[in-house]
Input
Amino acid sequence: MLPNVVVVGTQWGDEGKGKVVDVLSTRADAVVRFQGGNNAGHTLVVDGEKIVLHLLPSGILRPACLCVLGNGVVIDPGVLWKEIDALEARGVPVDAGRLLVSARAHVILPIHKQLDLLREDARGDAKIGTTGRGIGPTYGDKVARAGVRVVDLLDRASLTERIRAAWSSVGRAVADGGGDLPDQDAVIEEYLVYGDRLRPMVGDAAGVLYRIRAGGGSVLFEGAQGTFLDVDHGTYPYVTSSNTVAGAACTGAGVGPTAIDEVVGIVKAYTTRVGSGPFPTEVGGETGEWLRAAGAEYGATTGRPRRCGWFDAPLVRQAVRLNGVTRLALTKLDVLSGLAEVPVCVRYGGADVDGWPLSLEQARPEYASLPGWGVDLGSCRSFEDLPEACRAYVAWIEEAVGAPVDLVSVGPGREQTLVRGGLFAG
Ligand code: IMP
Output
């Protein structure tokens, strides 16, 4: 049986969590998202057709697996509606038996999206590069105790009161910034319709998860974004507005720390980031272009080209520590095939080997070169099939970051997922 596992990204997101969650969800009774919103994105293939999901976990394709949007998630109900429609149109039912939405999750309003864009605009050269989905302003209102929750969508009086309050705070900021305020009453009616549709799926997610675990079931907690986009531990202010580290699974789903057995860190064989902010091992020029093309590094949510760079051992080691990672899954190893030598960052100059700088802006990466491998890895079906230099690269990462690599991915297909044992072998 699968233990209770949290899956998190160890870099800046887009490490390929979806694929690993997909593999593990075959053995889970529930898959829970605990933070973020539709700023995330992963692509599913249903009957040969691609669907990009931003909110629903990929477990939604498995009838035996309950998908949960926890209280820590921020929900754009219009986006959720479209995802449900897209799946149902392809014969995947999304009903109360498959999806549970926490009544306590916060709701993204149209004015949150407007404010997100206006604030970005006002930042001029210091833009964060947000996804423009209203994530930051919605979390801001949550913490300011001025938000709208899913439970409010179920009741006209509460929704009216909450939306009126939002219009007099966020709405004012939008108007001051020159934005066109949508009609309050129209938004109330639209959101009540969302509430009616979601009503059967809304519930006490923490209570349901407790009962699943008490009955011997297992829960998979699916993180979104990555460790260094965490609002506390990331490259502030160039971060997202939620806690993305494994500890956030507890607050964002409503389980205690003792409920978590394993933390899987997803790590890309090199590094990418979307949006602004420090990125010590970034490579520009032709080499950067080559990495982007080889790895098809374009955002699933915004389509933006991702910034690319070499593997950064101090960064991932810090992520292993911040998340309490017990096992790593290494993705996109195939992308590095063909390099004669693979540069890797072994430490930041100025810091001692074990040190972590107070700001990543100060990090001066120092590199080593590891031997490359010429052959394509796409047809490898077991870890032992990998060329020796490639296995040595994996062993070097394990040693440098302090956690075992239990799974290696060498392509998008399920058969290109090489399991070495541990958690994934069950
Ligand atoms: P926000 O989450 O839309 O506020 O964007 C804040 C920062 O996080 C920006 O740099 C985004 O590009 C980045 N970001 C948000 N979600 C993701 C994700 O799922 N993958 C990678 N980067 C993300």
